[in-house]
Structure formats: structure tokens, C-alpha cells
Write a structure and sequence with these properties.
Strand order of the largest sheet: 1-2
Number of domains: 1
Helix content: 40-55%
Strand content: 5-15%
Radius of gyration: 12 Å
Distance between the termini: 33 Å
Shape: globular
Largest sheet: 2 strands, antiparallel
Order of helices and strands: EEHHHH
Length: about 80
């Protein structure tokens, strides 16, 4: 079962370009439709900062899901948490 790489949801999973396709992004990761639509073409760190200020529900889901993980996305989440 695929789950969202950002929040862990298993609903409405899509392939999401980590770096926006419009900015020559080629690497994809599974993401729920809500995270994919929210991120849009923002760079990952910019999106996390935006969530932290503007969407506490999604940001808290992402923080909780990545809390004990060790991967590039989790490391970026932890970095934003400490800002």
C-alpha cells in the first residue's frame, strides 16, 4: 500500500514531483492529493515554511508522520521545526 511521503495518508495517492515539473523536476514520490495540491510548484523547504505559518493542520500531520523517520524529507521537516 502506498502512503503519502509527507503526511502518511493512504487516500488519493498521486505521483508528486519533489522539484516541480515546471522547474525541470524528474524525481517523484507518492503524495496524497491534499499535500500535492498544497505544495503546487513550491520548493520543498518553502512549502514546509508556508505550512508552518499558514496550515497548522497539515503541518502537524507532516511533523507527526516524520518524527522518528530518517530520510531526506524527514530531515528537512526537522530543520524547519527547529527554525
Amino acid at each position: 500500500m502506498k502512503v503519502c511521503s509527507y503526511c502518511g495518508s493512504s487516500r488519493n495517492i498521486e505521483n508528486e514531483h519533489i522539484r516541480a515539473k515546471s522547474k525541470s523536476g524528474k524525481i517523484t514520490t507518492p503524495a496524497c492529493q491534499a499535500c500535492n495540491r498544497s505544495k503546487g510548484n513550491k520548493p520543498l523547504m518553502e512549502w514546509f515554511r508556508w505550512l508552518k505559518k499558514n496550515d497548522s493542520y497539515r503541518w502537524n500531520r507532516i511533523k507527526s508522520y516524520n518524527k522518528r523517520k530518517r530520510n531526506p524529507i524527514a530531515e528537512k521537516v526537522k530543520k524547519i521545526m527547529n527554525e
